[in-house]
From TrEMBL:
GO terms for molecular function: hydrolase activity. InterPro entries: AB_hydrolase_fold, CarbesteraseB, Carboxylesterase_B_AS, Lipase_GDXG_HIS_AS, Type-B_Carboxylest/Lipase. Pfam families: COesterase (PF00135). Residues 6-463 form the Carboxylesterase type B domain. Its EC number is 3.1.1.-. Keywords: Hydrolase. It comes from Amycolatopsis taiwanensis. Belongs to the type-B carboxylesterase/lipase family. Residues 41-72 are annotated as: Disordered. The keyword Hydrolase applies. This is Carboxylic ester hydrolase. SUPFAM superfamilies: alpha/beta-Hydrolases.
């Protein structure tokens, strides 16, 4: 392809060159905010100053500072991407569009997961080709992670990573028409930490008018840290860095140090007199709120927003199977986990045991973990949204069991993503250590799941009945054992 044939789009900040391929046009690493360097890492995102000439949008963006993540035998690189690729301008979006032609197409803005400390738009799983093929403009977002993104600091606004996503949505509102998208038909979607951020946006007063629909995939409406919990993390981070817990003191510290000290924050006990640890010790970062998003939907735009929300049936398996701990878990381990995440651990374990009478201790532990991390907070948000929005809530449960790791991975956290993006046949997701395992996936399942997301982004209806608290319909996607 000659250089001249590459598409160029004029945006308010300047012109961007992309590439054209079989599924449409692709523009990468477009900044939606100024580079977060020095003291700006702890400030609200500022508008990008713009550029002259034509910006190269054919190469991937740098990524937010982040640690490497290891999931034992399971190859999670399609999910986490390449890790930290240093560069100042990483507050960027990638855009996949059928054509930057002024067409008014539905827009899907996707916020990646990774425990608030890892992930980026460069992850192979977020390939938007199928969305573009089906007439949707897909925008994927990088945001500040870890200490710059979410550590609560005196002199800095809270939830800076969330403010980044808000800024990206503002950028989309102002700019997406140039890429063939309809700024009045935007769906904000996210998975895992990204889904928890989407849930927080539903309860954020300043988010009104930026999106019409929302998708919460394996997130939690009750995943926020209380201010007291956040202060514990801040104190531990300041101690590990040997500095004061203020934005001014942290501004002088390089990003490398913030990544280096993350292991020192692992294992913090975040239980307080009023709250359990909503992330079960798996991450020391989350959104920080005095009231959980699911209990504060009336404060934000939620009542006017269509919501698609759900979880996988064996979410907890991702944190136990690759590490080999599903098989070695004891009853004591189950109770120890329940004690971390439940005010009444014995009753919680008994309820799970009654629901799963044949479960091994490992399966019980996975169930307790999945419910604490995602299930309970998803149910609470679905209920709360259905009560205020009037027929705009749709719920799903994803149950296809991956055959990875000797057939044991199951319907774990992240397994639905290849189906949503309609890339479940990619060879790099298969084999014993690939996310989907050695077996081919069922015919048509990816097409059906993807079509539901496309339909929801277009019209707010994924293809099944709305969730009503009196008649709670949950659509089953994939086989549930």
């Amino acid at each position: 392809m000659t250089h001249n044939a590459d598409p160029v789009v004029e945006t308010p900040a300047g012109a961007v060159r992309g590439v054209r391929d079989d599924s449409g046009e692709f523009y990468r690493a477009i900044p939606y905010a100024a580079a977060p360097i020095g003291a700006r890492r702890f400030a609200p995102p500022e508008p990008h100053p713009g550029w002259s000439g034509v910006r190269d949008g054919t190469r991937p963006s740098p990524t937010a500072p982040q640690p490497a993540r290891d999931f034992g035998r399971l190859d999670m690189t399609p999910y986490f991407g390449p890790g930290w690729i240093p560069g100042e301008e990483y507050l960027t979006v990638d855009i996949r569009t059928p054509a930057a032609d002024g067409g008014k197409r539905p827009v899907l803005v996707f916020v990646h997961g990774g425990g608030f400390v890892t992930g980026s738009t460069r992850a192979a799983l977020y390939d938007g080709s199928a969305f573009a093929r089906d007439g949707i403009v897909l925008v994927t977002v990088n945001y500040r992670l870890g200490i710059p993104g979410f550590l609560d600091l005196e002199g800095a606004p809270a939830n800076r990573g969330l403010l980044d996503v808000l800024a990206a949505l503002g950028w989309v509102r102002a700019t997406v028409a140039a890429f063939g998208g309809d700024p009045d038909n935007v769906t904000i979607s996210g998975q895992s930490a990204g889904a928890t951020l989407v849930g927080a946006l539903l309860a954020t007063p300043g988010a009104g008018g930026l999106f019409r629909r929302a998708i919460v995939q394996s997130g939690s409406g009750t995943g926020a840290f209380t201010p007291e919990q956040a202060r514990r993390v801040t104190a531990a981070a300041a101690a590990a860095l040997g500095t004061e817990p203020t934005a001014e003191a942290f501004a002088a510290i390089p990003d490398e140090r913030f990544v280096e000290i993350l292991p020192a924050l692992a294992g913090l006990d975040l239980r307080t007199s009023t709250a359990t640890d909503p992330l079960a010790g798996l991450s020391q970062f989350s959104v920080v709120r005095a009231v959980q998003p699911a209990d504060a939907l009336a404060d934000g735009p939620a009542r006017d927003v269509d919501l698609l929300i759900g979880t996988n049936t064996e979410e907890g398996h991702l944190y136990l199977v690759p590490q080999g701990t599903l098989a070695t878990t004891t009853e004591a381990d189950v109770l120890a986990l329940a004690t971390r995440v439940h005010p009444d651990p014995e009753t919680a374990v008994a309820a799970h045991r009654a629901a799963l009478p044949d479960a091994t201790p490992g399966e019980l532990r996975s169930a307790v973990l999945g419910e604490a991390l995602f299930g309970a907070g998803t149910a609470r948000m679905a209920q709360a949204h259905a009560q205020i929005s009037g027929g705009r809530t749709h719920m799903y449960s994803f149950g296809y069991r991956s055959t990875a790791l000797d057939g044991r991975l199951g319907a774990a956290h992240t397994v639905e993503l290849p189906f949503v993006f309609d890339i479940a046949d990619k060879p790099w997701l298969h084999g014993d250590t690939g996310l989907l395992g050695p077996d081919p996936v069922p015919d048509g399942l990816a097409a059906r799941v993807h079509a539901a997301w496309v339909s929801f982004a277009r019209t707010g209806a994924p293809g099944w009945a709305a969730y009503d608290p009196r008649r709670p319909v949950t659509k089953t996607l994939g086989t549930v054992r």
